[in-house]
What does this fold into?
Amino acid sequence: MGIPISVHVSFFLLVALVISANSGTAGMGWINATIWIVSVFACVTIHELAHSITARAKGARVRSIVLLPIGGISRIENMPERWIDEFWVAITGPLASIGLGVVAAASALATGEHLLPVDLISGALLPRLAWVNLALAAFNLLPAFPLDGGRVLRAALERRHDVETATRLAARVGRVLAVALAAVGFFWDVWLILIAIFIFMAATQEQASTSLHVRLTGHQVRQLMRSPVEALDASQRLGSLTTYWTGFQVVTSDGRYVGLAEGTDLMSGDADALVGDFTDREAPVLDLNEDIGHSALDHLVESGYPLLAVVDQGVPVGVLLLEDIARWLSSSGPVGPSGRPY
Ligand SMILES: [Zn+2]
It folds into this structure.
């Protein structure tokens, strides 16, 4: 379906751990352990695909799905802003898990396996898969960011409130839940405390990120970019440079955009080397009319560069710096719940 699925390198650590933990048990232990891990993560992948396919149907762009030992992450860009779309994107993952759980349970019963008592360690494969999928759905439906339930809750709150207020309320519920989870963990299982800390931080971060994006939405790249700015010729030698900025736009001799070069790279290079050799031709570029809150900020942060070139019809027209966005944010004052400065 054109969605790249990648496996994080730490995932293999989990596979090695599970296999080594099972190697002692009679003969086939490690084969069963491998089948188990692969099956569970096939289910996690289907859960993430459900989110991704729904998001794409609602007009978002799915960059990739990454599988980590703790679960999967769908990287989605340009998320729809209508609450009903957000709701469906969030809920389809847990719905897929419930569906998989029911299918696994039905198959288990059809082949004469028993679902009870619950045995996730040494039981038969199908009953274990049934319970794992149902547990995955239940856990993800907890109303706390970054879990799906937190997004479902926010979408529901957006029916009555603006997105910032809805996020603030959902984040508050998430933090309360995290504290409760930590309290339970204190008496029961220390893992819960770790998950609680994770949820608490994610809730706070989600709130900050949403507020940032909301404040920047409606502002175009052309409003905050620096222009005109110096551009370097790709065929220029490093020895001829006299000033060094954080980053440079690099152009051909007739002024067409080539890529981005960082000041520190140019400073450390050989005097005879060409600017073009230190140019990242793959660096993303921004559009003059691009909305900063909607996409430009994300492109900047994800690029890893402190600035990106703004290119209009193949010609560089300015640069947008993270620093300038930060300065603008701090000078324009805090924004109230209604989105207006107060
Ligand atoms: Zn999910």
Q: What stands out?
A: The two ends are 46 Å apart (CA to CA). The pocket of zinc ion is lined by residues 47, 51, 93, 140, 148 (CB under 6 Å). The first strand starts at residue 5 and ends at 7.
